[in-house]
Fold this protein.
Amino acid sequence: MPTPPLSADPHSHARPAEVSVHHLALDLRVDFDARTLSGHATWQLSRPAGSSATELVLDVRHLHIEAVLLGNSPEGEPTEFELGPDDAVLGQALRIWLRPDTTAVTIRYQTTPGAAALQWLSPEQTAGTRPFLFTQSQAILARTWLPCQDSPGVRFTYEARVQVPADLLPLMSAENPQQLRSDGRYEFRMAQPIPAYLMALAVGELEFRPLSARTGVYAEPATLPGAAAEFADLEQMVTAAEDLYGPYRWDRYDLLVLPPSFPFGGMENPRLTFVTPTILAGDQSLTSLVAHELAHSWSGNLVTNATWNDFWLNEGFTVYFERRIMEKLYGRPYADMLQVLGHTGLLHTIQEIGPTSPDTHLHLNLAGRDPDEGLTDIAYEKGDYLLLTLEHLVGRARLDTFIKEYFARHSFQSMDTASFLDYLRRELLDPEPGLEEKLQLDAWINGPGIPAGAPPVASERFAAVKAALRHWQNGTAAAELPTAAWSSHEWVHFLHGLPAGLSAAQLAELDAAFGFTDSGNAEILAAWFPLTIAAGYAPADAALHRFLTRVGRRKFLTPLYKALLATPNGRERARRLYAEARPNYHAVATVTFDALLGRPTE
Ligand code: BES
Ligand code: ZN
């Protein structure tokens, strides 16, 4: 069946319908002193039948382009190129002149120290004594370290040579080394075609520990033993995922634990998920995040959102899949807690964005905006909720067959919302008259908020939390509450369920009974600090300070800075803390916080 053309990507200058790239050979030297990557990228080109295009357009942002050559060699014949106007979000179009028969171009280039995808860490920002570098390419930052067609609708295979200082290990979203090489020269290969946002590189003092024949974990030496224990169930997760939706198509699945400034919880770089160390809680309580990134090996990395407007196809399926993996491993009551936590987050996000805002539609319109701004919880939780509603209507067996087929038939392809809806109607909805109306499909995709008729979500374990909250509010001492068997999810739900406006004395009672301020669990801390900030509960100030200056995970920090701003004189305190913490944050986080707090003067 011929695939219909996908919608145009408003976040890329590239025109892949004329000439597209299909293979990359990258050769980079990592310079920690200059904080640059330099070298060359050779792209193999494809022209659709009938195209005789003589111009290749790539995305670049803040790159220093030294030369562009026709063919495979950095010493080849120079060709003309032109850099378009610099858009603050999209960067520049790099227009390269081709001959009609040109099949490859080579670009010699260097990154600039402020490249938004790259975070260069000093030794103090790591768990060890050496510097560290990592990339974060999603959504449109690959272009800040690689001239590329930076659109999720364009896929390519790649090979890379990377030169690093001899005692550091480089890793990519590719076949990875497990040991240092004395010359600091490494070669990588990614044989499956991926979009540019899944290009990734990390370099640091890293060691590897296998977890099973095909899974393992990389981390700094001080972090590795704890990480290996935390992720002991990784192979079971991969097996559970395969049982649900078909074979894992990427060969190995490894994790890389980054230093705490990593701005996300996790990033699904193929073969090598990047994760924040804030999920190392010591009790495996936060590993649903790993199930999430693993699930992207199907939803996202195999079948990829065609543009960022279709982001829900990546994240909604992934959240649904994540919870199914967790259910298989730890049972329904456990997965139900995750579902309710997600649902509570969704209601909160809808309130925050505005219940009638088009940004609460599943199909987004992000043209003219930084995609990072519009990529909210909606895609994740409303997307998941649509699939849950479908499950409710057609039953698990039918939905699972549908999803498995969907991944199998569209492997290594991109998908936009319109094509997905066609496929959904054809395979699942149309055969049953009235089903689409019952589902209210259009309201989910093109309407705000949550359509009526979505099934309720509930958790039996959280019913006990609610009872405990009620008892405490009715005068039972905190220390008397039956909390002994609670996981961190119950604690987070408990903290979210506390009434607004608690006094410092009330928080002191809770803290004495449950030790929130000293918790080693980042989710608990992130739920606790907004209360302590609002109440002016000073005993938590030192822990809050440590959290803000050490952790760079945007999802945790945003509510904390907002809570600070909401207190009397909070703006000044927030700005002071931010000025101190900012050097430890990645550019994707500082963009958000500069907008919230104002950029501190250095
Ligand atoms: N792919 C996302 C992270 C992302 C999204 C980066 C958009 C840049 C732009 C990743 O899979 C993700 O969703 N991470 C979540 C964790 C997850 C358990 C919800 C995060 O980092 O919080
Ligand atoms: Zn995700």
